[in-house]
Amino acid sequence: MPNLLLNKLIAQVVLWVLFIVRGVLNTVNRVLSFDRRHTKKYIFLSLTIAYALMIFYLSSRSDIQIPTNIFKIPILYAIRDLLENAGIYFVTDLLKYAYAHLDKVAHMFLYFGLGVFLHMTFRHSDNPIMTKYAAPFAFFVGILYGISDEIHQTYVPGRTGNIQDLFANGIGLFLAQIIFLALVLWGLQERKKRKHRD
Questions:
Q1: d(CA 109, CA 126)
Q2: How many CB atoms are located within 10 Å of the residue 87 CB?
Q3: Do the Cβ atoms of 83 and 92 come closer than 8 Å?
Q4: Dist CA 23 CA 16 (whole Å)
Q5: How far apart are CA 65 and CA 80, in angstroms?
Q6: Contacts with 163 (C-beta within 8 Å, 6 or more apart), sequence order
Q7: Three-state DSSP class for 71?
Q8: How far is Cα 72 from Cα 51, in angstroms, rounded to an integer?
Q9: For the chain, which residues make up each domain, given as ranges?
Q10: In the chain, which ranges are E strands?
Q11: Closest CA to 111 of 147, 86, 78, 83
Q12: Rounded Cα distance, 99 and 130, in Å
């Protein structure tokens, strides 16, 4: 019976997280639909600063624990068994590594979000060079912020700054830029297809 209650609680938490993600995506969609470029610039700059402050706040906490029981959902074990039976071991090995290093995964996801906000901030900048090269600028500024974050963590009791966390930060930033570049290339390809149809 306690497992059923725990699974219900975990399912409820997952639903709330999905609800929040949907709200954030709807907000980003509304921001993207504004006509004036300078309004977007200030909104994305504000969101980026707020997100960076959230990371700073989380880094200054010495009592943060990553919940491990959220991954103990029976369906995840069934998916793992299905992947292993299909011979797709690299996915299960990657997931086992991620489970063993949840703090690195958390760093990666946090900095993925920072990479998205930085990219959108630079993409909507008034400076044409920053707009054109938003991905490299976002990656570079994100890495500098990650370095400052790791240095900051060395002064927080119970926390340490290390190169593995910085590497996880870099992976998150890099993945955000790769996804943005893939979306831009896909958009260009779709425009070409529409142009040829017309």
A1: 28
A2: 7
A3: yes
A4: 11
A5: 25
A6: 150
A7: helix
A8: 29
A9: 1-33, 36-67+101-197
A10: none
A11: 147
A12: 37
Residues 6 or more apart in contact with residue 73 via CB below 8 angstroms:
7, 10, 11
Phi, psi of 162 (to 5 degrees): -145, 165
Angle between helices 102-123 and 89-100 (to 10 degrees): 100
The mean pLDDT value for 92-117 works out to 80
Residue whose entry in the numeric block shows the structure tokens 């943005």: 180
Number of H helices, E strands in the chain: 8, 0
Q: Residue 149, Cα to own-chain centre: how many angstroms?
A: 16
For the segment 5-34, what is each residue's pLDDT rounded down to a tens digit?
Answer: 767 767 777 778 777 778 777 777 776 665
**Two tokens, residue 108:** 């990666």
78's tokens: 């069934």
Q: Which residue type, as a one-letter code, is found at position 45?
A: L
Give the integer Cα–Cα distance in Å for 107 and 192: 38
Give, in order, the Cα–Cα distances in Å from 20 to each of 23, 34, 53, 103, 124: 5, 22, 19, 22, 25
Q: How far apart are CA 96 and CA 71, in angstroms?
A: 11
Please give the model's pTM, rounded to 2 decimal places: 0.69
Q: What is the pLDDT of residue 118?
A: 95
Three-class SS state of 101: coil
Q: Three-state SS for 198?
A: coil
